[in-house]
Write a structure and sequence with these properties.
The protein has 380 residues and is mostly helical. The protein has helices at residues 24-33, 36-54, 67-75, 80-106, 112-126, 137-147, 153-176, 182-208, 215-222, 226-243, 253-281, 285-294, 297-315, 336-347, 354-379.
Length: 380
């Protein structure tokens, strides 16, 4: 029989590649944005070195060499300080769990009762604050000691000792090739900047709507998730920790400081957006009439214009002082100068001195605090 000929390319699916995939800078940028690739390589090198070292150790350690690469992987993190901290915590957790398993093995119980007895104290000790995120290894080490190590003290020593050996190798590898996850943090901060810009623009849209939401609806349906803000803080904090005693951080000190400054500024902006929503959409009885009288159609229009200008400026990062709000054109993107003009335009409807505006803002905040206190008292 003649073999059936298959039409060339019939079942083939062409996967489009990025246009710049053949350029070196494209791969460098991917490497910067995805530091987990470097983390995986460092972990592999540390685990291999730890395994090689464990293979030449004499005594009980030679029976359990696999715990050394285990410790190396635990110690290989995104920061050198994190490597040291998690290594100490993991070895301490294993030692505590091993001690629990050893003590329970001394009791006149076996089988399921022994397993239950070892798990209860191990889970309780896993919550010890000093063990941090590594506390979860306490029950694991306790069960390993009881079941695999038969409650022998030599097993506990080999388990903790080899894990420590591997952790030291992992710390050494991180010290030689120190990580600095700057690019992912920059991406997260940029994403949060867009989120704040969207919130400001959404405020303007809702202010113009026929039925604006109340504060509770704003927080539940429209405001940015606190998770995004917390994520930004976590990434920036990780960069700060990674920069500590990191020789590579000297080259990027300007970028790190700029990142921290932008994160702090965006954090304040997010709080300002929350305060604006509270002022614009509050449904407290004492504010409703005053707000309706103050927010005339013209005032509302100018406030919305200012909000949209601020949102556009956030979407178009511009070096301070380089944009002229009185010039038109695509080469002159929105900036804080345009936003300042829009806010001044809104102020012209009710011109006040700057110091009086400060006092008004303080008094409004104090009044809202009293109204909130009254709401709490009514529910007590």
């Amino acid at each position: 029989m003649t073999p059936e000929l298959r039409t060339p390319g019939r079942w083939q699916v062409r996967i489009p590649l990025p246009r710049d995939v053949t350029r070196a800078w494209w791969w460098r940028e991917r490497w910067r944005r995805h530091p987990r690739s470097a983390l995986a390589i460092r972990a592999a090198v540390a685990a291999a070195l730890a395994w090689a070292l464990a293979g030449v150790l004499p005594g009980p350690a030679a029976e359990f060499p696999y715990y050394a690469p285990f410790g190396a992987v635990i110690a290989t993190t995104f920061t050198l300080a994190g490597s040291v901290r998690e290594s100490v915590q993991s070895v301490a957790a294993i030692a505590v769990g091993g001690a629990v398993g050893w003590v329970v093995d001394l009791l006149p119980v076996s089988g399921p009762p022994a397993v239950a007895l070892v798990v209860v104290p191990a889970v309780l000790l896993a919550g010890w604050r000093r063990l941090g995120a590594m506390g979860g290894w306490v029950p694991t080490a306790a069960l390993f000691t009881l079941i695999i190590g038969n409650g022998e003290a030599t097993y506990v020593g080999a388990y903790a000792g080899l894990t420590l050996l591997g952790a030291l190798v992992g710390i050494a590898v991180n010290a030689v090739f120190p990580p600095l996850p700057l690019a992912p943090a920059q991406l997260v901060v940029t994403a949060f900047r867009r989120t704040v810009a969207d919130d400001v623009a959404r405020l303007a849209d809702l202010l113009e709507s026929d039925e604006p939401p109340n504060v509770l609806q704003w927080e539940q349906e429209h405001a940015a998730s606190p998770h995004e803000r917390a994520r930004m803080h976590a990434f920036v904090a990780e960069v700060g920790e990674a920069a500590h005693r990191n020789r590579r951080a000297r080259r990027y000190s300007g970028s790190i400081e700029a990142l921290r400054y932008e994160a702090r500024t965006l954090d304040r902006l997010a709080l300002v957006v929350s305060d604006l929503a509270d002022l614009l959409f509050s449904d407290l009885p004492s504010d409703t009439e005053a707000r309706a009288a103050a927010l005339t159609a013209d005032t509302r229009r100018r406030i919305c214009s200012a909000l949209r200008t601020i949102a556009a400026a956030l979407e178009n990062p511009t070096v301070a002082g380089t944009a002229d709000p009185h010039l038109d054109g695509e080469e002159n993107p929105m900036s804080s100068a345009h936003a300042a003009d829009a806010v001044r335009d809104a102020r012209r409807l009710a011109p006040r001195r700057d110091e009086q505006l400060v006092v008004d803002g303080i008094l409004v905040s104090l009044k809202r605090a009293v109204d909130s206190l009254a709401e709490i008292e009514r529910t007590d």
